[in-house]
Design brief:
Helix 10 runs antiparallel to helix 12 and helix 12 crosses helix 13. The radius of gyration is 22 Å and the shape is globular. Helix content is about 35%, strand content about 20%. Strand 14 and strand 15 form a beta hairpin. The protein has a seven-stranded mixed sheet. By secondary structure, it is α/β, with parallel strands linked by helices. It is built from 16 helices and 22 strands.
């Protein structure tokens, strides 16, 4: 009997492979970073071939670390950075252009042109999303219009599009030799092209954006007993293993946190920050700047929807302090530096490097540090950078309460920043609710493993998954209400200072 499930997490800054046992415990982990490419201001790219090489390397390393034997792995699940778009040649597997990353803002003019007829919410009723540079659809249009030869290849049926889940699955299952060109409902719901009701590509929107349907992958459930193929025996796993789970990274974290009931929410602290609230079998259209998205779809069961608050820059701000300013040598040092001061010294750091996402959706905004005086030092800047994540999370939570009518009683958290004790305490303080970290905080990879494992009956039910979830630590609010509201009011004022920077 197979003992394990493998999960590949293709993230914004790195790719990892994790192997889990039936209790949801990590047996092994391997991770490698890939290059961040910045051709010009506002442009962010990845090399898809480098990502595929890193994927193969981490799979091999994780298998060796775990001492896994043939037949030990029951299935493979994929999770990925969403909205990052790649278009490649079906015959060779060679990308026509680098992957355009979700943070990239080059499609602003495309989005503005689309919004000129019908406004920013032109397609929201169908897809649950505003027109924004964040999503994949405008990126596909940009590649078709600006990269020589791609439009012709698409019309001949030789070009394929995918978010990074599709790219990895295609290569794992054969690549040019009949690899599976597929995505799941969660990733498809981030393209601006999938109808929330039909769970299929919307013909009207495809026509408006000039995207041939043939370029798009087939949309499948997130956990699919009808497997999409197996890994190649001459591939990195060294054997044929069913590939049958796929979730965008934030939806994967929702599943990994076992938020299966209406009203349950999680917040993932990674490169960006993403809060998802399970809203059940009916999509709720947001009136407060949130996204309506697919939470997951398990086999032939009804699709489950979520409200999402997407924040572009959180962990990436710590990396910026490290790489661009040199204030710290390692990201983990930011907490030590922030603890050298008692508070933020009166400054607020609004990291609108790629504009502002939820709940504002302002592509004209740019980053700002406000409230500067001679008193401020690098400790205050570090502290303000951490606090920015907590403030942005509160903005999203306030919008969720209004849209859903659900008052959150506790927030489940995961991702790399949840081991920052200063941030987690401040998050609880500024929200006024407990913040709960699970024992297995790598819930994104765990969610992908759960999706694959459910498909092959490695786990039999959602109750099996709930039984694996355990609390590691809880932070309770210690801040006085008056202080909380005063700080938050100043933050809102700082955010307004970033508007209208780009004409």
């Amino acid at each position: 009997m197979p003992k394990y499930i493998a999960a590949i997490d293709q993230g914004t800054t790195s790719t990892r492979c994790m192997i889990f046992d039936h209790n949801g415990q990590v047996i092994s982990l391997a991770q490698k970073e890939h290059e961040q490419i910045y051709p010009q201001p506002g442009w962010v790219e990845h090399n898809p071939m480098e990502i595929w090489v890193r994927t193969q390397e981490v799979i091999h390393e994780a298998i060796v670390k775990a001492g896994v034997k043939p037949g030990d792995i029951a299935a493979v699940g994929i999770t990925n950075q969403r909205e990052t778009a790649v278009v490649w040649d079906r015959r060779t597997g060679k990308p026509f252009y680098n992957a355009i990353v979700w943070q990239d803002t080059r499609t602003k003019s495309i989005c503005d042109q689309l919004a000129a007829s019908g406004g920013q919410d032109r397609f929201r009723a169908k897809v649950g999303l505003p027109l924004a540079t964040y999503f994949s659809g405008p990126k596909i249009q940009w590649i078709l219009e600006n990269v020589p030869g791609v439009r012709g290849a698409a019309e001949r049926g030789d070009a394929l599009f995918g978010n990074l889940d599709t790219w990895v699955i295609w290569w794992l299952t054969g690549g040019p030799e009949e690899g599976s060109h597929i995505t799941d409902v969660t990733n498809a719901s981030r393209t601006l092209l999938m109808n929330l009701e039909t769970l299929d590509w919307d013909e009207e929107i495809l026509i408006v954006l000039g995207i041939p349907r043939a370029i798009l992958p087939r949309i499948a459930p997130s956990s699919d007993p009808l497997t999409w193929g197996t890994t190649r025996k001459d591939g990195p796993f060294g054997e044929a293993i069913p590939v049958c789970g796929d979730l965008g990274d934030q939806q994967a974290a929702l599943v990994g946190q076992t938020c299966f009931n209406i009203g349950e929410a999680k917040n993932t602290y990674g490169t960006g920050c993403f809060m998802l609230l399970n809203t059940g079998e009916k999509p709720i259209q947001s009136k407060n700047g949130l996204l309506t998205t697919l939470a997951y779809k398990l086999g032939d069961q009804p699709a489950i929807y979520a409200l999402e608050g997407s924040i572009a820059i959180t962990g990436a701000l710590v990396q910026w302090l490290r790489d661009n300013l040199g204030l710290i040598k390692q990201s983990s040092e930011v907490e030590v530096l922030a603890r050298t001061v008692q508070d933020n010294g009166g400054i607020y750091f609004v990291p609108a490097f790629s504009g502002l996402f939820a709940p504002y959706w302002r592509s004209d905004a740019r980053g700002a540090i406000v409230g500067m005086t001679r008193y401020v030092n690098k400790g205050h800047i570090a502290r303000a950078a951490l606090e920015a994540t907590a403030y942005q999370t509160r903005e999203v939570l306030e919008a969720m309460k209004i849209d859903s009518g659900v008052k959150l009683t506790a927030l489940k958290v995961d991702g790399g920043m949840v081991y920052n004790e200063l941030l987690m305490q401040f998050q609880s303080d500024i929200l006024g609710v407990p913040v709960v970290r699970p024992k297995v905080s790598e819930t994104t990879s765990l969610g992908a493993a759960y999706a694959a494992g459910l498909a092959v009956n490695f786990w039999n039910s959602l109750d099996d998954l709930r039984a694996n979830w355990h609390i590691d630590q809880t932070w309770h609010p210690l801040m006085r209400e008056a202080t909380r509201e005063s700080l938050y009011s100043a933050w809102r004022k700082a955010v307004e200072r970033t508007f209208n920077w780009i004409d």
